[in-house]
């Protein structure tokens, strides 16, 4: 483990000194070097994730596809979303738009007396066991993410944005980041705030996000794969998550246009919460994916990146 950490640190340092630091000075932003170095770490993580996707998940898609690909343009747009997130562009945008407001908001909470709850310090000895501490935070994070995901489906306004993610009818390993930017910003702010308030360290946070993202890439992959009767109940599989994306699951409207709450398989990493709260569906099915009004009524969710972002805003405003 020490060897891997040292290797990562060297890669971050090399990328920072060779590219990021000169660009920061050239742009007259030398005062942001500390943030730039932190951002370089995220880029290194993203490059490693892309490598795993190409080397491991990609061949699995070609070997055991859940369905044949017939719309490669839609997949190419998803690649753009993935590169925006994994190469640091999304985090860069967050820094220049919401980072200051986020820090000010946390400052207000501190003034109100909101403490940092170090969860791994509630049990004696846990802080000395890095793996146990990490697993504890992973479980808590996944619990929060489960409820975020349910809210995305059960709030009409949030669904107007999240529907973009479900409009992909050719799911692949690239589909995880196919989200409206406002949807991603809101989710990122909530999870970041939770991380700060429960005492997740910077290194732990990077690891949590990296593992979650890779798992989600695999869950969205065009792979006809499940983990067996027991495994399906331990970790979210491509089969489990594809059921969540099946046409008409969790985003129906009645004849008056009102939202009918429902859906299944909201778990991001762990199916435990779906089992606990009655939203799990373990049927061994690999159904077509998409949104019902898109499939049956031809509603337009956009073909390109900017069209998808624009239509998401129009849906939010009730104009599309």
Write up what this structure looks like.
The chain has 320 residues and is mainly α. The chain has two domains: 1-63, no CATH class; 67-316, no CATH class. The chain has helices at 2-26, 33-63, 72-86, 89-97, 99-111, 130-154, 156-166, 181-198, 202-220, 228-231, 238-245, 272-277, 292-297, 305-316; strands spanning 252-253, 259-260. It has a two-stranded antiparallel sheet with strand order 1-2. Strand 1 and strand 2 (259-260) form a beta hairpin. The mean pLDDT is 90.
Walk me through the topology.
Elements: H1 2-26, H2 33-63, H3 72-86, H4 89-97, H5 99-111, H6 130-154, H7 156-166, H8 181-198, H9 202-220, H10 228-231, H11 238-245, E1 252-253, E2 259-260, H12 272-277, H13 292-297, H14 305-316
Antiparallel strand pairs: 1-2
Helix pairs in contact: 1-2, 2-9, 6-7, 6-8, 7-14
Give short descriptive properties of this protein.
63% helix; mainly alpha; 320 residues; single chain; 14 helices; 2 domains; two-stranded antiparallel sheet
Strand-and-helix sequence, N→C? HHHHHHHHHHHEEHHH
Oligomer: single chain
Strand order of the largest sheet: 1-2
> Segments where pLDDT lies below 50 for 5+ residues?
none
Average predicted confidence as pLDDT: 90
Total of helices: 14
Shape descriptor reads: globular
Rg over CA atoms:
20 Å
Distance between the termini: 51 Å
Count of separate structural domains: 2
Largest beta sheet, briefly? 2 strands, antiparallel
Strand content: under 5%
Q: Count the E strands.
A: 2
Helical content class: 55-70%
SS content category: mainly alpha
